[in-house]
Amino acid sequence: MSTTPQQVPPPHGLRFAFGTLTVLPVRVGRWDREAARAGMLCAPLAGLVVGVTAAAVGLLLLLLGSGPALAAVATVAVPAVLTRGLHLDGLADTADGLGSGKPAEDALRIMKQSDIGPFGVITVVLVLLAQVAALTRAYDGSWARGALAAVVSATVARLALTLAARTGVPAARPTGLGAAVAGVVPVPGAVGTALAVVLAATAAGAFLGPYVCVLTALSVLAALAAAELLLRRCTRRFQGVTGDVFGALAETAATAALVVLALR
Questions:
Q1: pLDDT beyond 60 at 3
Q2: What separation, in Å, do the N-terminal and C-terminal C-alpha atoms of the chain show?
Q3: Nearest 10 degrees: CA dihedral of 83, 222, 42, 167?
């Protein structure tokens, strides 16, 4: 008798999320569709841990007198370290694939190559500069606002993956991480997770005043909108999603959230 989604114990979902989306020493006990579904629903929790860690490092540097700029660099570096740079690598590969102008099969072949092309390099550099600049602005406002930006951006980056794994989004390849998680999350579950993150982020922003409260909610919505636009572009261009596309979605959502949260 097959295991239903409801029968997947919560630890398996958390292990899948942390084992595939972070470098934390978590062993993935199951690699089936049900575990993938639970894991992608837990993805924002993995982002929360990454964001809290990044904020802690940034705040420690601020406490030591480093200044907002260096704290921002460190905050951006932590998610890259905790993911082995896979999301940035996925962003670069996706940019190369989209920028190649070649048919889907050839573009996917380009994305699998180990080297990074000019489109990928330029995209990664600009994204990292935008993230550092936005976080510098946020830390310059206050340590609490910088920490909020770090946590919200990392969480919403993984929420974008939950939404991208929803039913109806196909995989571009028959194998790989993209194929393992494509279409595993029911739409109601994805929407419910998104609403929970929006509400939690808005509540966190409320501690810093009504303006930051509204701005935080807008940052999550802007991040999800940017990720959705990229997702639709990739599914049209590549005929589905890949692990690289998931990485690109995470970095796009994080950057969009940070840009909005940097506004005064």
A1: no
A2: 56
A3: -110
What residues form DSSP beta bridges with 185?
166
Q: pLDDT, tens digit, for every residue of 218-239?
A: 999 999 999 999 999 999 999 9
Residue 45 in tokens: 């929790």
Round the average pLDDT of the chain to a whole number and report it: 92
Q: Residue 67 contacts by C-beta under 8 Å, 6 or more apart in sequence? A: none
Kindly state the average pLDDT of the residues 154-180: 92
Structure-block tokens of residue 1: 């008798």
Q: Write the secondary structure of the chain as one string of H (helix), E (strand) and C (coil).
A: CCCCHHHCCHHHHHHHHHHHHCCCCCCCCCCCHHHHHHHHHCHHHHHHHHHHHHHHHHHHHHHCCCCHHHHHHHHHHHHHHHCCCHHHHHHHHHHHHHHHCCCHHHHHHHHHCCCCCHHHHHHHHHHHHHHHHHHHHHHHHCHHHHHHHHHHHHHHHHHHHHHHCECCCCECCCCCHHHHHCCCECHHHHHHHHHHHHHHHHHHHHCCCHHHHHHHHHHHHHHHHHHHHHHHHHHHHHCCECHHHHHHHHHHHHHHHHHHHCCC
For residues 59 and 28, which has the higher predicted lDDT (pLDDT)?
Answer: 59
